[in-house]
Amino acid sequence: MGRAHNFNAGPSALPLEVLRRAQAELIDYQGTGMSVMELSHRSETYEAIHRSAQDRLRRLLGVPDNYRVLFLQGGASLQFAMLPMNYLSRDAAAAYVLTGSWSEKAAQEARRFGRVQLDSQAKEDGYKTIPEMLDGEALAGASYVHITSNNTIYGTQWHAFPTTQIPLVADMSSDIMSHEVDVEQFHMIYAGAQKNLGPSGVTVVIVRDEWLQQANQDIPTMLQYGVHAKADSLYNTPPTFAIYLMDLVLEWIEEQGGLTAIASRNAEKSGLIYSVIDEYPDLFDGHAAKSARSHMNVTFRLPSDEQSKEFLAQAKALGFVGVKGHRSVGGCRVSLYNAVPVESAARFAEFMRDYARKSR
Ligand code: PMP
């Protein structure tokens, strides 16, 4: 059976074992005579799936008891709006650390609800770096500070999170569950599922209880974090099948040995590609500064757009999928989320080396 070398940026590769399991259970889930898609979201069978996904997520990430885990819809993009709707007001300010296109979008959305103070250090570096320290001026008087833990488009990643007295919120859409995180550093973490957690359609929000109490309640019901927390993410019909697949993906992560094992595998995969970039710096121009390199998205350019195009055409012909850089920046991007096998990264590194030798 032909499985692609799938380097898509999201939606992206899922573990083959998970797909097989979902296939086996598709038509008759545990003797119910129906698919998970056909179960009532109020049934005991579905509730067990819902709880299992929450419990696994808590165990794997080490989520403390005073945090709630929510399953919402609308993608990370809805979180760009929900966060300021719940925690920003006209007469207040929020700080946004710009580290790439997604943080710019998050900041843009917050402007609709209050004042936004920008930390632009990384932007001034052409989004090649991650700030070593937060910009104090941007933080002054802010209700919260927002960061993007991994910058999917530019290929940079925070390797140590900033410490601050201000509530810290992170968009972890493209690196959640790829390594261990100290959840207590954050008041809120959110992430769309379609990179490391499962298919698109479900968004995970992890939020501190005491912060939930402070959220604005003068907004539409469906946009209040408190409403979803109170109803345990069953206020309305949740994306049941996406949550079921997420539970299977989380079980797979446990079987791999949890986040320590997953993180070292991810470092191995990205290391395979970065080492070719470092061997042939005149041919492969890595975008990220070394200290800010992402283990999830490796981005680079060839000396000319023509050569990038030729390289991409060869990669495609060899069966490597999704290597074209985001349309806003061009070049190449190899996304190496949890479910991408080491073998795929190794094969791609070999292809890069062959290409480099031939183009001497
Ligand atoms: N934040 C980051 C870091 C992302 O990579 C993406 C999607 N690639 C988004 C937000 C937007 O996510 P969604 O499409 O789920 O709204």
UniProtKB/TrEMBL annotation:
Species annotation: Alicyclobacillus dauci
Protein name: Phosphoserine aminotransferase
Binding annotation for pyridoxal 5'-phosphate: A76, S77, W102, T152, D171, Q194, N236, T237
Compartments where located: Cytoplasm
Cofactor binding annotation: Binds 1 pyridoxal phosphate per subunit.
EC category name: transferase
Pfam families linked to this entry: Aminotran_5
Record field: catalytic activity: O-phospho-L-serine + 2-oxoglutarate = 3-phosphooxypyruvate + L-glutamate; 4-(phosphooxy)-L-threonine + 2-oxoglutarate = (R)-3-hydroxy-2-oxo-4-phosphooxybutanoate + L-glutamate
Top-level taxonomic group: Bacteria
EC code(s) of this entry: 2.6.1.52
GO molecular function annotations of the record: O-phospho-L-serine:2-oxoglutarate aminotransferase activity
